[in-house]
Amino acid sequence: MNREPALTVGTVTAAVTAVLALLVAFGLDLTSEQQAAILGVVGVLAPIVATVITRTKVSPANTVVAQRTADGTVIAGEGAVVTAGIPVDVTVRR
């Protein structure tokens, strides 16, 4: 989930739907209206929870100073003082 925090909405909604169906199948006495109300609340809360989780795991593009590409090259990000997208030397000098 750390690599794809936005998957949270679908995961939470699917899990609640499955658990609800399982509980009803095993005898939990819920009317159709109650099931719909529960799923409605989950449908509203899941995106809010996902937003809060996602915001803690990502950075706005204009604050990224450097990033690593798929091939391992480190390039300047939009928050860098050099042109974004060019390779940069990230060697630490002391």
From TrEMBL:
Membrane-spanning segments: 7-28, 34-53
Transmembrane helix listed as a keyword: yes
Sorted UniProt keywords: Membrane, Transmembrane, Transmembrane helix
Lineage top rank: taxon: Bacteria
Protein name: Holin
Species name: Nocardioides oceani
